[in-house]
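Blinded run. Sample ID left blank on purpose so nobody reads anything into the name before looking at the predicted structure. Input follows.
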Amino acid sequence: MSLEHDEDVAAQLSPQAFDAQFRAQHRSPLLTELWARAWGEQYPAEVRPNSGCPWRLLGLMVADLRPAPGATIADLGCGLGGPGLWLARATGTRLIGVDWSAAAVEIAAERARHWLPDERVEFRTGSFTDTGLADGVADAVISVDALALAMDPQAALAEVRRVLRPGGTLLFTGAEPRTPDAAATVWEEPLRAAGFRLDSRTELPGEGAAWGRLYGSIRQHQGRLREQMGDRATRTLLAEADMIEPHIEQLSWGVVRARATE
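Blinded prediction complete.
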């Protein structure tokens, strides 16, 4: 569950590298179109997610979190902010989005003007292990395809527990090795060690197929993507495809929900 990395990989995983990738992807209408085609009727166009965030996930977030109006939701690894903005608007809550990419935070803050009043939203830079948030500030924490990729998952979970109030809910998505029991998760023991009680894991059907369609489309349209995004950003997407595609059939995408212990 951890990433061992040398200096080259560390550079690729730097905030500056993510800045360039977020800016490039945000300015590509073709990439947005490819995301929409890959997820079909499950694609939430207004949200314009840069991760796997189908309508079924947004509905599950509302049902599983059931936040009270005025509660605070923290979105860690928020990227361009879409899922958190949608959730906060739909539930009448306050949103704090955190990402280590200053470019993502800037774009998310600009988008927020069309979603929520200023007093109900804040985007700020921070990492999974140092969010900069106060103890117990959040009633719920969400993370879409981000927390599961933290380089130090145990330290990230400890930071999530710190910013969550006792009894607060953590809900995050990610891919895991497929097993006969779709409700089982490799996160159960790390969550317990960080002060959480695992509530459930819910599989998201069709996600593997959608990712496969996206990666196939990126390969097919890589020439046009290079025109819109540049060579480096396009190569990053192709490298991701090379890494994930061979394993899609062995992976299960799902939603993990856990409760911060008292």
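Unblinding after everyone has recorded impressions. Confidence is low (pLDDT under 50) at residues 1-11.
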